[in-house]
Queue: 2 jobs
Job 1
Amino acid sequence: MPARVLLLFLFVFAAPAMAAGDAVRGKQAYAACAACHGAEGAGNAGLHAPALAGQDAAYTERQLQNYRAGIRGGTGGDTYAQQMRGMSMSIGPAQAADISAWLATLPAPRPAGSLPGDLRNGNNLWQGKCGACHGSSGEGYPALNAPRLRGQEAGYLRRQFLAFRSGERGAHPDDTYGKQMALMAKTLDPGKELDDVLAWLRAQDGPAQ
Ligand code: HEC
Ligand code: HEC
């Protein structure tokens, strides 16, 4: 399918607008999340908890709903997703919206250090296969429901990519947007190609090369 037709198709299925949350209330409710995701939402790689700061609110809110409904993490095959599924049940839909609104106001983290990989190849792969949805520098594209990836910890991104490939994530019949990503995950080799893309993504935030 030509890229333009694909984009048109995706816009037709754009997410229904969700009620905007209250960021002030969200900051308070987030106290329950800070132990794993960090006080400012920067994530904690040691706990396998991703960064949440600076992410599009509708994406974050949808993930919380998906964990809660078992659309994500419901197979029992992924320990970390299962852990987060448990946490998602400790808050209601209104709190999920509030927390998501607050997190979106925070600056996204900028992880230090480079990753091994071929940046030129990573750029080519990114612009050819990922950038149309996730943005030309990984900043995310809310109109296409594609989250921000830049600033996110590479180990988490790799794990999610592999989960989409294996069907652990994105295979649930109600996972409309996860299904789109599951198709895309099949277009990139999970070895060197993924290394190159992750190294390139890191370089978007890291020190000058
Ligand atoms: C016990 C540790 C822990 C706590 C507490 C916790 N989380 Fe998580 N969270 C995780 C882990 C681990 C993951 C990665 C799960 C996966 O791989 O699917 C995660 C994933 C997420 C994601 C998915 C991010 C993405 O980019 O798709 C969101 C959103 C999230 N958590 C929000 C929250 C919120 C909001 C709270 C508080 C109500 C919270 N978490 C509390 C451990 C935790
Ligand atoms: C057709 C649009 C599209 C393309 C192209 C695409 N993605 Fe995605 N991607 C998405 C959507 C939509 C989601 C969110 C799915 C959801 O809501 O669970 C996503 C989610 C992800 C996630 C999970 C992020 C998180 O915080 O958990 C990763 C990692 C990812 N994509 C990597 C890639 C890579 C690498 C490429 C290029 C090979 C790519 N994507 C190409 C649409 C796309």
Job 2
Amino acid sequence: MKKLLSLTLLLGLSTISMADAPLDNELKQAMAATGNIKNGKQVFKLCIVCHGTEGWGTIDGNYPQIAGQHPSVIIKQIADIRAGNRDNPIMFPIAQIKVMGGPQSIADVTAYIGTLKMTRKPELGKGDNLAKGEKLFYRKCAECHGANGQGDEKRFYPRLAGQHYDYVLRQLKWIQSGKRRNANKTMQKRIQKFKLADFEALADYISRLEPPKEITAPIGWKNPDFQ
Ligand code: HEC
Ligand code: HEC
């Protein structure tokens, strides 16, 4: 038992020290690199099995929609995931340098994802508490994520509009509990007292916020690159 505990501690510690060192560097390098869409298409083949050929994720919210997300956010999240700064055991093995490549590959795949338009049909909640969701969103979230949930490329604030309901709900729970370790601290503090019903109302409202038409695909669109 003691042995197990010290092993966990050891592993825990190594994740922490691993998290800080490569993160800044890699984030900086990937942000500075010019993404190559053609190479990015090759890297994207690794992502399809979970995020889909259109980058729309899945309607159960297990896999987030990544199409339409700000490049800075995509780069930061991949760097965080592979540095162990955001727990994502499902994607972790694919995000390793020896599998998906270094900072240039992150920039490339991000450039390719930037060519994909969003689905107009994300997973939605029940629609039974939208007024509450709207009120909470404007009071507590819009200053960072924008009045239309558009986020902010320059500040690494994710676009939330049109994201799948269950994914948003899960992130909110994990941000509150600290399981999503890379979460913004102001945001985390602000939602400490929120109840499940608040999260459900917010996730529902957010999933129904419509992204601008220019960045959404026609209904039923399929990515011709992978047909
Ligand atoms: C085996 C499945 C799997 C594969 C393959 C995979 N991902 Fe993911 N990815 C996930 C899961 C699951 C999440 C969400 C985890 C969570 O709920 O926190 C995620 C989250 C992300 C996020 C964060 C999204 C956000 O809104 O914060 C980005 C960006 C991302 N993936 C990009 C990629 C890219 C690029 C590839 C290909 C190089 C890829 N993923 C391959 C499973 C996968
Ligand atoms: C002080 C600014 C700020 C406020 C206020 C804020 N957020 Fe965030 N939020 C962020 C940042 C920054 C991130 C990305 C953190 C990271 O790097 O992982 C984020 C991430 C998220 C994510 C994960 C998105 C994804 O694609 O994985 C969700 C969901 C979210 N916020 C919802 C909310 C909601 C709902 C509120 C209001 C109750 C809120 N946020 C308030 C800054 C903020």
